[in-house]
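Project standup — Tuesday

K.O.: blocked on the structure for the chain from last sprint. Re-posting the sequence here as requested.
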Amino acid sequence: MTIRLLGRTEIRQLAKELDFRPRKSFGQNFVHDANTVRRIVSASGVHRHDHVIEVGPGLGSLTLALLDRGAHVTAVEIDPVLARQLPKTVAEHSHSEINRLTVLNRDVLDLRPDEVENQPSALVANLPYNVAVPALLHVLAEFPSVKTVMVMVQAEVAERLAAEPGGKDYGVPSVKVRFYGKVRRYGMVSPTVFWPIPRVYSGLVRIDRHESPPWPTDPEFRDQVFALIDTAFAQRRKTSRNAFAEWAGSGNESARRLLAASIDPSRRGETLGIADFVRLLQRSGEAEEVSAY
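H.V.: unblocked you, prediction finished:
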C-alpha cells in the first residue's frame, strides 16, 4: 500500500491545526475509520481506469482510499478551508498520487460538465446529509458518463432511495433515482466511525446506470417525467385520477390517460413505479420527440 489512510487521531489533529470546527450548515461529519472507507471503495468497484467525482471530501479519508485504488479523483468541496488543505493532506500521505487529484472549491449543485477536465465514470462520496438527494440527482443529470454511484448517506435517506413502490419510505427520491438505473442497499454504517459522532446511523447505496436505457433520457423528457412524479407525491392521499386532474385538464381526461397507460385510475401515486410514470407520459401525447429515441 502506497497511501497511509487517516485515523481518528489524525482527523482530530488536522482539525486542531486548522482551527477547524465542523459546520452543521454543511452537514460535516468526517469518517475516520480505515475499514469503512475501504469497504465503500471496494463496494464501488472503482479501479485505476476510473475517474471519480467525490462530493464533500472533508479532511480526505475517502479521497485517500480512492486514490489508493488507482483512480483519478475530482473532489468537490464547498468549504474553502478544507479545499485548500486536501491537496496538502494527500501529498503528506502518499507519493505521486497527488497527480491524480483535482480539487474544486465549488457547490456541487452548481457544478457543470465543462468544469471537470475528464468526464467522470463514477460518483463515490460520503454525501453531506443536508444536500444528499439534490447532489445525487444533480450529478446523475449533469454527468451521463457516470455509470456507477456508491454513496454513504443517513440511514433514513438510504431507506428512501432504495424503497420499493407502496412501501412507507417510498417517495420522490425513490422514483427519480430509478429513472437512471438500478438501486441497491449495501448495509449500514455505525455513527461511531464519524467525527463528530452523529445521532443516526448511515447507509450505503449503490446505483448502476442503465447500460441500455428502457426510455428516452434527454433532459426535456426527463423533466416532464419528473414533473409527473412531483405531482403524484404532492397529493399522496388522492387517487391518481384526482392527482393528475389538473395536469390532464379534467378528471375524466386524467382517467382516460391513466387507462391508456394501463394504470388503474384509483391507484395512488405512491404505488406507481418509474415505468408507470414514463408510460403515462408517453401515452398521454404530452411527451415530445419520443419517437426520436
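K.O.: great, moving the ticket to review. Strands lie at 30-31, 51-55, 72-76, 101-104, 122-126, 148-154, 181-189, 194-195, 202-209. The radius of gyration is 21 Å.
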